Each structure stands twice: as structure tokens, then as C-alpha cells.
Amino acid sequence: MEQLSTFEMIMLGAVALGVLFWFGPGVKTMLEQSRKAENKDWSGVLVPIIIVVIFVFLLIKMV
Description:
With 63 residues, the chain is mainly α. It has helices at residues 6-36, 43-62. It is built from two helices and no strands. It starts with 5 loop residues before the first helix and ends with a helix.
């Protein structure tokens, strides 16, 4: 794979900065709402992760 030209690197940096500025306010608002939330329901995150880990473990054991 060849290296990116200077113009491509500048455009890639500009796009990255644009994405940061575009999503920045939404992420800030989301983090503030998360801090104010009363119920921190971690089971909604942990249960799917545990299921995936068990599934991967079973796939490895089948080989």
C-alpha cells in the first residue's frame, strides 16, 4: 500500500476535525445526562457481553 499524499493527509485531518466538532456537543450532552441518571442499569450491558463470551468459548471448544 502506498503512502498518502500531502493533500490526502490534510483532507483526512480536516475530515477528522469536522467529525469531532460535529459529534462533540452531542457527546457532551449524553455524558451529562448519564451522570444525572438515577438508575445505572448495568445488566443491560453485561448480559449481552456475557452471552457473547460464552458463545465464543463454546465455538473454540468445538474445534
